[in-house]
Specification:
The chain is α+β, with helices and mostly antiparallel strands. It has 4 helices and 6 strands. Strands 1, 2, 3, 4, 5 and 6 form a 6-stranded antiparallel beta sheet that branches.
């Protein structure tokens, strides 16, 4: 049963980066390539800071995710999803939002992201919608830089 759930979640995770427009569910957190974008500080929420760390990193760390999340999705699966996002819309720039809803901005598009942290600040839930390319492939401005 557990292996079946992990397989289903992995399929959903990968689908979000496909051409079919389906969403990608990623329980907990992963890490993409490091960029020189501004790091959310000051009034940034814990989720915003965790997402920023995830999107900047090239290697997701197990300690960023709750044990329940890692029972369903591995850090390798998270890394693969983030690599596909970066390959479609470029380097990560910044993230903003509130509550569980965020928008991550990349060089050539955005990803709506839904994140939930546990009481220890680890990803307990992570859902990435399909990447949205900027109109006509235009680059987004370097927000916050």
């Amino acid at each position: 049963m557990r292996q079946m759930a992990a397989t289903c979640l992995a399929g959903v995770l990968m689908a979000g980066c496909g051409a079919n427009g389906s969403s990608a569910a990623v329980p907990q957190r992963a890490s993409p390539a490091v960029s020189d974008a501004a790091v959310p500080t000051g009034g940034a929420s814990s989720s915003e800071r965790q997402l920023d760390q995830l999107f900047r990193s090239s290697e997701p760390k197990a300690e960023w995710f709750s044990p329940q999340f890692l029972q369903k999705v591995t850090t390798d699966q998270v890394r693969a999803v983030l690599e596909r996002v970066r390959s479609k819309i470029g380097a990560y720039r910044t993230v903003s939002g509130a509550g569980d809803d965020y928008v991550a901005v990349f060089d050539h598009g955005t990803v709506k992201t839904h994140a939930r942290l546990d009481d220890q600040g680890r990803f307990a839930g992570l859902f990435l919608e399909p990447p949205q390319k900027a109109p006509d492939g235009a680059a987004y401005p370097n927000q916050g830089q």
